[in-house]
C-alpha cells in the first residue's frame, strides 16, 4: 500500500506541483523503489535515485545485531561479544557513513566499492 501511495505521488507531482522528483529517501524497504522502477512515472529515460536514510540504516543494523544476540544458534562468546560492543559497532558504521559521504571527488560507484 505504501509503495502505491508514493508511486501515485510521484506520478501526480508534475500535475500538482510542476515538479519531477529525481531522488527518493528510503528506509531500506525496496518495495517503493521497485514500484517506481516498474511504473516509470516520468518516462523510460528518467532515473529516480534511492538514497538510504542513515537513521533507518542504523536502526535496521541495531535490530539485526539484537536478533543475533538473542539467537541461540550462535555461540555464546560471539553473542556476548556483539552484545557488549553493539554501541561501538554502531559508532563505526556512523563513522564509515560520514567518511564515505565526504568523499566529494569520487563517484557514487567508487564510494561504494571503496576505490
UniProtKB/TrEMBL annotation:
State a single Pfam family of this protein.
Answer: Mutator
The source's superkingdom equals: Eukaryota
The segment(s) forming the Mutator-like transposase domain are 1-104
Q: What's the protein name?
A: Mutator-like transposase domain-containing protein
Per the UniProt record, the lineage of the source organism begins with:
Eukaryota, Metazoa, Ecdysozoa, Arthropoda, Hexapoda
Amino acid at each position: 500500500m505504501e509503495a502505491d501511495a508514493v508511486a501515485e505521488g510521484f506520478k501526480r507531482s508534475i500535475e500538482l506541483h510542476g515538479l519531477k522528483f529525481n531522488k527518493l529517501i528510503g528506509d531500506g524497504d525496496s518495495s517503493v523503489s521497485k514500484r517506481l522502477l516498474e511504473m516509470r512515472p516520468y518516462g523510460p529515460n528518467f532515473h529516480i535515485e534511492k538514497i538510504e536514510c542513515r537513521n533507518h540504516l542504523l536502526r535496521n543494523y541495531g535490530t539485526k545485531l539484537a536478533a543475533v544476540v538473542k539467537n541461540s544458534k550462535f555461540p555464546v562468546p560471539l553473542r556476548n561479544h556483539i552484545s557488549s560492543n553493539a554501541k561501538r559497532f554502531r559508532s563505526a558504521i556512523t563513522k564509515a557513513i560520514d567518511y564515505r559521504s565526504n568523499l566529494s571527488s569520487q563517484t557514487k560507484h567508487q564510494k561504494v566499492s571503496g576505490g
